[in-house]
């Protein structure tokens, strides 16, 4: 049964249907993130205090004392658990998830606006693009959690049969698992690039 459950999730047909079913969630998350990036870029002076605080936390994640492999694992773990947190906050109707997404978008826009553009592009863009896409899927995952929560609560309040409630939760739950899997893959790629490729690129360009 478990094998069939995962087979229903991880197949080409369901992968395509996932994007159709969650088109609104993914579109909203993308638009929100892009607007946040633009806000951070063009209105950077409004975010100096909060951006400085966030950059301090980001800088403390990786260390030059770590090996490349250790750095990669630390970067991946930090980003993955942050994204899982975003999804989990869907239990609070995704409000914290939206705030976190906006703050991350603003931070990226702020960095590009206030730092040397070429240096920032070389050091951030190669891995950052994967992390931003992962954030889109994480926010969509948060919306799926909220969707399941609302369906569960409405089913209980309307005294529906538990079997019917579980049936209504089945598809969004499968979509949530697929969202987590997509985020996992994106962040693994991002961590590999950040730990292994980014230092080489920066050295090549004398940064």
Describe this structure in words.
This protein has helices spanning 2-9, 12-21, 23-42, 48-59, 68-88, 95-114, 117-157, 162-204. The chain is an all-alpha fold. The protein is globular, with a radius of gyration of 19 Å.
Secondary structure blueprint with pairings:
Elements: H1 2-9, H2 12-21, H3 23-42, H4 48-59, H5 68-88, H6 95-114, H7 117-157, H8 162-204
Descriptive labels:
207 residues; mainly alpha; 8 helices; 0% strand
The N- to C-terminal Cα distance equals: 53 Å
Low-confidence parts lasting 5 or more residues at pLDDT below 50?
none
Oligomer: single chain
Instruction: Report the count of strand segments.
Output: 0
Describe the biggest sheet?
none
Tally of DSSP helical segments: 8
Portion in strands: under 5%
> What is the 3D shape?
globular
Summarize this entry quickly.
The chain is mainly alpha-helical and 207 residues long.
């Amino acid at each position: 049964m478990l094998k069939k459950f995962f087979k229903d999730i991880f197949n080409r047909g369901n992968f395509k249907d996932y994007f159709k079913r969650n088109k609104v969630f993914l579109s909203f998350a993308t638009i929100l993130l892009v607007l946040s990036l633009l806000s951070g870029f063009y209105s950077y002076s409004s975010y100096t205090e909060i951006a400085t605080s966030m950059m301090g936390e980001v800088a403390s994640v990786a260390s030059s004392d770590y090996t490349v492999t250790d750095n990669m694992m630390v970067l991946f773990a930090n980003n993955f658990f942050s994204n899982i947190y975003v999804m989990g906050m869907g239990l609070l109707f995704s409000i914290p998830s939206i705030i976190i997404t906006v703050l991350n978008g603003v931070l990226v826009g702020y960095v590009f606006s206030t730092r040397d553009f070429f240096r920032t592009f070389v050091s951030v863009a190669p891995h950052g693009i994967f992390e931003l896409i992962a954030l889109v899927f994480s926010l969509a995952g948060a919306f799926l959690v909220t969707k399941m929560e609302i369906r569960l609560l409405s089913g209980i309040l309307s005294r529906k049969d538990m079997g019917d409630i579980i049936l209504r939760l089945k598809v969004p739950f499968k979509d949530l698992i697929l969202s987590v899997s997509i985020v996992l893959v994106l962040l693994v790629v991002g961590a590999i690039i950040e730990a292994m490729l980014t230092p080489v690129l920066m050295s090549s360009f004398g940064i």
